[in-house]
Design brief:
With 179 residues, this protein is of the alpha+beta class. One of its GO terms (molecular function) is RNA polymerase II CTD heptapeptide repeat kinase activity.
Length: 179
Amino acid sequence: LKPQNLLVDGKGAIKLADFGLARAIGIPVRVYTHEVVTLWYRAPEILLGTQRYSMGVDIWSIGCIFAEMASKKPLFQGDSEIDELFRLFRILGTPTEAEWPGVSQLPDYKPTFPKWKGSSLAEKMANYMDHDAIDLLEAMLVYDPARRISSRKALHHPYFDDVSFPGIFFHAKGSPCWR
């Protein structure tokens, strides 16, 4: 996902375009190429070389787009994969095994990466987002894809309390579907 593939109509409804790299929901995690997402919206697991990823990469991209819509500039504006990674690390801190089990085993992880503590994402976005928006953004930009907020939980986040989703219903398993 990237802003160029989001179409917004006069009523503010968003439609997704360009499904060239789309995958079916429910298919087990598979091996894919790592160059699937525009650099500024690329999830850290892809930047670190994993070939097995899931819908969490889209949640990360949505988080980056969400921040960009609020601030009117990309959150992580790297000009290479390593620059992009280091921009993530400077803001979010260099990931550790404690917060992302298995990170040090990813193909492109280097134990020599600088160990940044990170600045505060909340402070960086405070002039552009309210508390609920920042909380949702922080849930989308969690390093560990297994701990990243799901689309369903995102739709139920307090940020959306005053928004109705008239075309959405939920399957028994909890995944959102459109009517």
